[in-house]
Amino acid sequence: MACPDCGRGSARVHSRYSRELADVAAGGRAVLITLAVRRLFCDSQSCGRRTFAEQVEGLTVRYQRRSSLLQHLVEMAGVLLAGRGGARLLHVLKAPLSRTSVRFPS
Ligand SMILES: [Zn+2]
């Protein structure tokens, strides 16, 4: 796993924790993934970052509680159907959110 700041690889484990990640619905039901995540040390002397959490390519995004696919869906609902319409669509898709959480991507 590579440090997000300097790109240097690391396998030296600092700690482990579990993280919950909402994904797109399956079989008409909301999906919540529980991931076992490792926090790794960055051992580069020139890097300002000491530790970083590993990410799963194509599934997780840093600081997000949604899978990358669900995040994309939420952003598209915000762009195409701003506000209440977007929230309604996400409810139908079993990804219910408040009006304020359907935001335009920055
Ligand atoms: Zn680094």
Structural class: alpha+beta
Helix content: 10-25%
Rounded mean pLDDT is 84
Evaluate the radius of gyration. Answer: 17 Å
Please write the string of helix (H) and strand (E) elements.
Answer: EEEHH
Shape: elongated
The main pleated sheet reads as:
3 strands, antiparallel
- How many structural domains can be distinguished in the coordinates? 1
Runs with pLDDT <50, length 5+? none
Strand content: 25-35%
Number of strands: 3
Instruction: Identify every distinct bound molecule in the structure, by name, code or SMILES.
Output: zinc ion
How far apart lie the N and C ends? 27 Å
What count of helical segments does DSSP give? 2
Enumerate the strands of the largest sheet in spatial order, edge to edge or round the barrel: 1-2-3
Describe the protein.
The model has no long low-confidence stretch (mean pLDDT 84). A hairpin with a 2-residue loop joins strand 1 and strand 2. This protein has a three-stranded antiparallel beta sheet with strand order 1-2-3, with helices on one face. The protein is an alpha+beta fold. It has one domain. Helices cover 21% and strands 28% of the residues. Zinc ion binds next to loops.
